[in-house]
Amino acid sequence: ICGYTCEEWVSTDEKGRKSEMWMSSEVAINTTAAYAMFGGQQGQNMPKMTGDPSKYPSGYMMEITTYETNGEKFTMTAIEVNLNAEKVIDTKGYQVF
Prior knowledge:
Elements (H helix, E strand, L loop, with lengths): L6 E6 L5 E7 L7 H5 L23 E8 L5 E5 L20
Antiparallel strand pairs: 1-2, 2-3, 3-4
């Protein structure tokens, strides 16, 4: 994906939703710690991470596809990796539950 080698991780949650994640250790951003925050939360269209955080996927998530039990499918794919881009994150439109 975007020229990076990726490793596939597949998970199924207790509700039967399946997620396929493509992770790359070649991108100089490691989002492993971010997956730990999903451990106690069930976000829409995101897998619920359970178990030992040291066994969570490592690297940068380049693509994820989640298959809902009702047949709906959600896909998010990186279209560019630019580590030199200006980074501005505006969180005022987000709600934390």
